[in-house]
Amino acid sequence: MKKYITFVALIVCAIGSAQNINEVLRYGTENLQGTARFQAMGGAFGALGGDLSSLNINPAGSAVFNNSLFTISGSNYHTYNDARYFGDALITKNNDIELNQIGGAFVFKNTDSNSDWKKFTLAFNYDLLNNFDNEYYVSGSATEGIDTYFLEYAGGTPFGSILLQDGEFLEEAYRDIGAVQGFRDQQTFLGYYSRIIAPEIEDNNNTDYRSNSIYDFVNQDFLRRTTGYNSKFTVNAASQYKENIYLGASLNFHSVLYTQYDQFSEDGYEPNSGITRTTFDNYLETEGNGFSFTLGAIAKLNDNVRLGGSYQSPTWYRLEDNTSQRINTDHPDVHEDINFINFTIVNLFEEYTVKTPSKLTGSLAVIFAKDGLLSFDYGYQDFSQSELRPTNDFSFQTVNSEIASSLGAVSTFRIGGEYRIQQVSLRAGYRFEQSPYTNDNTIGDLDAISGGIGYNFGGSKLDFSLSRSQQDVSERLFNAGITTPAMIDRTITNATLSYTINF
What are phi and psi of 194, to 5 degrees? Predict the structure, then answer.
């Protein structure tokens, strides 16, 4: 009697599957989040402080608070994907509501008038750095079929190493090959028993494979649905020295949950092809945590001008991946038990580390008394310094070489302004972020505009913001084979409402 296998042994060699260059960019980049005031002004708070989300830029910002406070924020995220694949365009939309920020600060003023240290602040803050909820769909007539995926993995794999043993179930062999021989051989196994590929010679030592598909063009449909988050909980301490210097430090504790479901189907082969339809679905789940620290300072040059500077350390993420797959074809010789390989069989990968790069930020703010302000931030982050660890792992060495050659330095510019009319504050901001890729093709530059309004009730404040970012992204359907990517024009609109209580 057959039994479903729920878990499998650890897969050590994961290259081409879960861990790749996308890990660094997924957890190393942030979609601007935070309080409504922070978002409305484009996040340009490095020399301003006075907002809980400003701790993400400069931890000295909490020393600017004159009183203790508590802030909570909720956002509506709307993602619009205009996706093109071989000229065919499809639009998908995703809408999500999250509690994206909550935090507070406690201000302790020094009663000793002779001391140079005027006050001390302890703060905590939770921010949703990135919301991964998204979905896009592409469809087109391609010149490369799914057979190219399996052929790329199969090359060099001995045929005898992927064959079923006497009395062995197909799903057991899939599990054991993945655990002992690795992801590459496991994909060769899938390709062979689904009859997408076949050995050139029926010999155990054969390492060359051919496709069972015949086509000039194939019709492909692909759905990618992602969910999850990257969040940060910050513990902050800051102090004001004399009248003009603010110093601060933060410890940041990151939490990650990411899921990715890919659904793929292909047909349109030639009439004499051994296969006329293929389905191949994949599921990835990543979970883990990370740590970073931040140091910063703000200097008041005079009543109108402030300068800020901060250093954010690399973030070290400890992550665990699991994957599952299912596949089927209508080849007449497809193995009858191929459907037993499905999402109930989970491939577990060894825990690994992703190190995202450190970041330097310089800031300038001009204060116009009680009428308003202008603020500017410049950030620098070199993504070529990112790493997957352990670095002595051969597969990670391959990924790290790709990171060093494909990724480069990213400059970020943020500009924000605020104009006050009695209790009402009007705000606007702009953000520009360079592509992390040296070729500017895989991911384009990011442009974002924002605006908002706030009302001060005296003991509390209510703020609203609306921000819109646009970025062109090319995403490959698979990490091997099929080289033509889906081209996506992605627009993200955030509407955020924050409420602050002063104590």
Answer: -90, -5
* Sign of the dihedral defined by the CA atoms of residues 134, 139, 140, 143, in that order: positive
**Listed residue (135, 131, 82, 188) closest to 473, CA to CA:** 82
Q: Report pTM.
A: 0.91
Eight-state DSSP code of residue 44: -
Residue 336, judged by CB atoms within 10 A of its CB (0-12, 13-18, 19+), counts as exposed
Q: What is the rounded distance in angstroms from the CA atom of residue 338 to the CA atom of residue 171?
A: 8
- Please give the helix or strand (H or E) that residue 342 lies within, else none: none
Q: Where are the domains of the chain?
A: 7-141+233-259+285-315+347-502
Q: Pull the structure tokens for residue 387.
A: 């790493």
Q: Distance between the two ends of the chain, CA-based, in angstroms?
A: 67
Question: Within its chain, how far is the Cα of 309 from the centroid?
Answer: 26
Half-sphere exposure (Cβ direction) of 324: Cα atoms closer than 13 Å: 16
pLDDT (tens place) for every residue of the chain, 503 residues total: 354 445 454 554 444 455 778 888 888 888 878 999 999 999 999 999 999 999 999 999 999 999 999 999 999 999 999 999 987 889 999 999 999 999 999 999 988 888 899 999 999 999 999 999 999 999 999 999 999 999 999 999 999 999 999 889 999 999 999 999 999 999 999 999 999 999 999 999 999 999 999 999 999 999 999 999 999 999 999 999 998 999 999 999 999 999 999 999 999 999 999 899 999 999 999 999 999 999 999 999 998 999 999 999 999 999 999 999 999 999 999 999 999 999 999 999 889 999 999 999 999 999 998 899 999 999 999 999 999 888 787 778 888 898 999 999 999 999 999 999 999 999 999 999 999 998 867 899 999 999 999 999 999 999 999 999 999 999 999 989 998 999 999 999 999 999 999 99
What's the per-residue H, E or C state across 193-246? HCCCEEECCCCCCCCCEEECCCCCCEEEEEEEEEEEEEEEEEEEEEEEECCCEE
CA distances from 88 to 137, 140, 343, 438 (A): 11, 6, 30, 27
Task: Say yes or no: domain 7-141+233-259+285-315+347-502 is CATH 2.60.120.10.
Answer: no
* Residue 127, token pair as written in the block: 């921010």
Query: What's CA 89's distance to the chain center, in Å?
Result: 24
Q: Which helix (H) or strand (E) is 462 found in, with range? A: strand 460-475
- CA atoms of 249 and 15, how far apart (whole Å): 37
Query: Residue with structure tokens 């191929």?
Result: 338
* Helix 21-28 / helix 394-406 crossing angle, nearest 10 deg: 60
- Distance, in Å, from the CA atom of 189 to the CA atom of 206, rounded to the nearest integer, reads 14
Q: Residue 293 burial (CB < 10 Å; 0-12/13-18/19+)?
A: middle
Q: Give the residue carrying structure tokens 């991946």.
A: 321
CA distances to 35, 38, 54, 493 from 496, rounded to whole Å, are 7, 10, 16, 10
